[in-house]
């Protein structure tokens, strides 16, 4: 699976816990719920971010701040959404994304993956990719 795709998937799933669009984590199924709980329990302490910063991203406010960028990187890496080179893993995304959103999410990945190319740090790549996913279609953006 392409890592960028998985990244968009994870990004989409991340916002779902408190998304104010049309999605809800409850609609995602047990695999996603378990993934969200696991990722948050690992990535919040590892990154040092807090709920307020996560909520800002959920609401579409992207602040270039090291802790939230580290959280985004952690989510993508721990979920398997990206490989060791930070390329998107499409297979993972396809396995987790609800079928009704899959085509739109895949399109977002296609658009957003190239935007990571200009950045060296994985934190910056994660930030740019997730922000792009939101900008492409905030109605299907999921962040947790």
From TrEMBL:
<protein>
    <submittedName>
        <fullName>Odorant-binding protein</fullName>
    </submittedName>
</protein>
<feature type="signal peptide">
    <location>
        <begin position="1"/>
        <end position="21"/>
    </location>
</feature>
<dbReference type="InterPro" id="IPR006170">
    <property type="entry name" value="PBP/GOBP"/>
</dbReference>
<dbReference type="InterPro" id="IPR036728">
    <property type="entry name" value="PBP_GOBP_sf"/>
</dbReference>
<dbReference type="Pfam" id="PF01395">
    <property type="entry name" value="PBP_GOBP"/>
</dbReference>
<keyword id="KW-0732">Signal</keyword>
<dbReference type="GO" id="GO:0005549">
    <property type="term" value="F:odorant binding"/>
</dbReference>
